Amino acid sequence: MNGWTTAAAVVFAGGLGACVWGVATGTLRRRVVAQNLATSAACPGLLLLAQGYGRPAYVDLALVLALLGPVGTLVFARLLADDLATDPPGGRTSARAAAGLGAAVVLVLCVAGAVLRVGARVFLGLGPPPPEGSSYETTGAGERPETRRRLGGPCTMSVR
Q1: What are phi and psi of 88, to 5 degrees?
Q2: pTM across the whole model
Q3: Is the pLDDT of residue 157 over 70?
Q4: Which has the least CB within 10 A, 5, 28, 105, 154?
C-alpha cells in the first residue's frame, strides 16, 4: 500500500461513507443529494487508485462516472419530482458531507501538487541545483557497458 492508495482509502471511507449514511437514513431530498455526492466522491478516489496501481483504465472509469453521475441525478429528480416537491427541505447532514468531501478534495489537490512539483524538478530541471561536491550525482565511471557495440537509433533520428 502506497500513499496513493492510502489517500484513496481515506476518500472512499470519508466521502462514500457519509453518502451511504445519507442515502440510508435521510429524507428523500437528502437521498438524492447524497447520490449525487457519491459520484463526486468516487471520482477522486478512482483517480487516486489509478495513480496508486498504475492502471490507466481507472482514469477512464472515473471520467465516465464524472459524466454519468449528474445525468443519474437528473433522472432521479425527474422520476421523483412529485415526491421531492412534497418533501420538506432539510440538509444539515448533507452540508457536513459536502464539507467533508471538500476537505478530501483539498487533500487530493495538495498531494497532486506535490507530485507535480517533484515531476517538474525531475523531468524539467526546475528547482535549485544540487550542492557542489555532493554525492547526489554519479559519473558512471565504474559501470560496465550493457552492449558490446553502439546501438543505432531509429532512422528518423540520424543526422547526415
Answers
A1: -70, 145
A2: 0.49
A3: no
A4: 154
| CA–CA gap between residue 112 and residue 8 (Å, rounded) | 12
Quickly list DSSP for 34-102: HHHHHHHHHHHHHHHHHHHHT-THHHHHHHHHHHHHHHHHHHHHHHTHHHHHHSPP--HHHHHHHHHHH
Rounded CA gap, 68 and 44, in Å?
15
Residue ranges per structural domain of the chain: 3-124
The predicted-structure confidence for 25-47, as pLDDT tens digits, reads as follows: 877 777 778 888 888 888 888 88
Distance CA 5, CA 70 (A): 26
- In the block, residue with C-alpha cell 443519474: 72
Residue 41 grid coordinates: 466522491
